[in-house]
Each structure stands twice: as structure tokens, then as C-alpha cells.
Amino acid sequence: MPLVARDTGQGHRPAIVCDACGKDITRASDCSCVWFDQDGLSVLRFLHSSARCARIFEQHEEQVLPSNLSLTAILGDLGSSMAIDWDAVIAQTAVVKRSLDSTHDDEEA
Ligand SMILES: [Zn+2]
User: Fold this and answer.
1) d(CA 33, CA 76)
2) What's the gap in Å between 47 CA and the centre of ligand 1?
3) pLDDT at 107 over 80
4) How far is Cα 98 from Cα 77, in angstroms, rounded to an integer?
5) CA 34–ligand 1 middle distance (angstroms)
6) Sheet holding 69-70, edge to edge
7) What is the pLDDT of residue 62?
8) Distance 82 CA to ligand 1 centre (A)
């Protein structure tokens, strides 16, 4: 279950958990996505790009379908297939960033 809601103490925020090591993936550049055959259903798995986490998945090589995509590629593909309004996403990202920045400023004051 890679997409979870983390309680930050000031509300819940979405986070992606590595299916190999179970830790949060905190940077898109450190996230690899693979399709994994699970009982005839191809499910998307997220893992750290590190060799350690990739090796854990290599143990199940027969179930990993030939793909290794970046999180950015997956989001772009998903956005296209679901007709996501990217302008709204960018606007929401700015709102969240301002909220986090003000919370951080309040903590420092
Ligand atoms: Zn990992």
C-alpha cells in the first residue's frame, strides 16, 4: 500500500511508502515505479531508486513486468488518462507550500 496519509500533528498529508523497505520516499527523484504481477492483476509498486531496494524486488523477478518508470512519468501518464487539470494542480501546490512555509515560520518564531 504505497500511498498513505501521514499524521503530521497538524493534519494528514499524503506520502508514498517504498514497497521494498517500508520507509517513506521523500523525493520524486529517488522513486522508481514498477508494474508487479499480483494474482493476474498488474499493480504499480513504488520503491526507492537505490540498489538495496531494487535488489529486494529482484527476488521476485518473475512477477515484475518489464517497466521501470520515474514517478514523474507515472504522474504525467495518469494525468493524461484522467484529464487532470494541471493548472489547478499547480495552484493547489502553491497553496500547500504557503501553508507549510507559514507553519514552519510559526515554529521558528
Ligand atoms: Zn526503499
Assistant:
1) 13
2) 5
3) no
4) 27
5) 13
6) 41-48, 31-38, 69-70
7) 65
8) 28
Q: How far does the centroid of ligand 1 lie from the alpha carbon of residue 24, in Å?
A: 8
* CB-based neighbours (< 5 A) of ligand 1, an ion: 18, 20-21, 48, 53
Cell readout for 103 is: 507553519
Q: Please state the pTM of the whole predicted model.
A: 0.77
C-alpha of 48 from chain center: 10
DSSP 1: -
Q: What are phi and psi of 80, to 5 degrees?
A: -70, -45
Cell 504557503: give the residue. 98
**Domain map of the chain by residue range?**
3-82
pLDDT tens for each residue of 33-79: 888 787 888 888 899 988 888 887 777 666 666 677 889 999 999 99
Mean pLDDT of all residues in the chain?
A: 86
CA of 46 to the centre of ligand 1 (A): 8
